[in-house]
Amino acid sequence: MISVDAHRETVTGLLGNAPVTRLPLASAAGLVLAEDVLAGVSLPPFDNSAMDGYAVRAADVSEAPVTLPVAEDIPAGRVDIAKLEPGTAHRIMTGAPLPPGADAVVMVEHTDGGVTDVRILRTAVPGAHIRRLGEDVVEGTVALPAGTVLGPAQLGLAAAVGLAEVPVRRPLKVLVVSTGTELVDAPNPLRHGQIYESNSIMLASAIRALGCEAEVVRSVVDDVDEFRAVIEPRLADVDLLVTSGGVSAGAYEVVKDALTGQGVEFRKVAMQPGGPQGCGRWNGVPVVTLPGNPVSVLVSFEAFLRPALLSAMGHSGVDRQKVRARLTESMTSPAGRRQFRRGSYTHSEGEVTGIVGPRGGPGSHLLASFTQANCLIVLPEDVESAAQGDEVDVLLL
After folding, report:
1. What are the sequence ranges of the domains in the chain?
2. Of the four listed, 73, 87, 253, 397, which is most buried by Cβ atoms within 10 Å?
């Protein structure tokens, strides 16, 4: 058997780095900058008012209260700004350019709000309520460094410094295939011996949640020729093929039979659930093959696919948050395998560690218990049992 860490490293290396592309800002949310972004303009791009009020010379209001004639009205967006003459005031709105000659802004709340003449009730010091050119970002400097995840604030800054598009790691296109003659797509009726297909729904939604694109082929029967005929023509348009089912040691293992000798290696990983795994390249396209039981699929996604996809798209934090917690009941684990159990974690206020209890048994078919879980309890390969009250590692989902 191969270790969990070794298989994860192989899968991550298989995907490498996603290509760089330029996308409009509206299409780049959640993606990662592939290059430094330089500011095309300074922020602010000019001295402007931080308040609705009056632009003045501080010396003219040093003995407030004082009444000054209002010579100009400066709304935001005005570009033809007249000079402020001594002994006058300009009514000014938030964000409007500061007129030459002014060195302070008196907020409207400290005046009588006059339009022709204004009575200013308080003094102002030079620089009061003025946003200075470049105090946030200076033109030509790095506004956003490579590796930045583009959230709302980052996209807003990119727009503010004059960018319409940004260089990012392109979202990967993933072909998701579920296999098994026993699978039926809902809402078609089931016959005895059949089950509804669910793996592709789970995988595709998990993959899309990372910002990738997912194309789905559901319920491919256990026939090697049909598998190849359905899947092979689609490979040219995707970055990754992910399959579920058909990789174990029994008969009718269609994925294993179809891809053995085609560049894909099948192996046993020292974990529970999810031992049967495979990865490689088919016609040059990266392939990751997962077992067929639904809990194995989700655990395998967390252990291998999620970090590999995030890493390929330039993310640095690809691991789930790990915490320590005390078990609320005892657990056992098979020797030599890393066990991932669904669990419910609760943080205890004022305590260093939280508490966690398993949800459902270790069986890889017990999907309902996964819906009640908010974490995975991890028992390492050298641990065969853990008692109530023991501390264990927990991956928060």
Report:
1. 4-18+171-312, 20-43+135-169, 48-131, 322-396
2. 253
Quick: pLDDT tens for 179-199: 999 999 999 999 999 999 999
d(CA 179, CA 182): 9
Whether CATH 2.170.190.11 fits 48-131: yes
Radius of gyration, alpha carbons of the chain:
31
Superfamily of domain 20-43+135-169: Molybdopterin biosynthesis moea protein, domain 2 (3.90.105.10)
Mark out the alpha helices in the chain (DSSP H runs): 4-15, 152-160, 199-209, 224-231, 254-259, 294-300, 306-312, 368-371
Residue of 332, 335, 336 lying closest to 377 (CA atoms) = 332
Q: What is the DSSP string of 266-305?
A: EEEBSEES--EEEEEEETTEEEEEE-SSHHHHHHHIIIII
- Tokens 């056992």 found at: 332
By C-alpha distance, which of 278, 192, 358 is closest to 11?
278
Three-class secondary structure of residue 27 per DSSP: helix
- With b for 16 or more beta-carbon neighbours within 10 A and e for fewer, the 341-380 pattern comes to bbbbbeeeeeeeebbbbbbbebebebbebbeebebbbbbe
Residue 186 phi, psi (nearest 5): -65, 145
Tell which CATH classification among 2.40.340.10, 3.40.50.150, 1.10.150.170, 3.40.50.11600 matches the domain 322-396. Answer: 2.40.340.10
3-state secondary structure of 238: coil
- Report pLDDT for 366: 85
pLDDT tens digits for 123-147?
A: 999 999 999 999 999 999 999 999 9
CATH fold, domain 4-18+171-312, is Molybdenum Cofactor Biosythetic Enzyme; Chain A (3.40.980)
199 vs 295: CA distance, rounded Å: 9
* Structure token pair of residue 222: 């256990």
* pTM of the predicted structure, to 2 decimals: 0.88
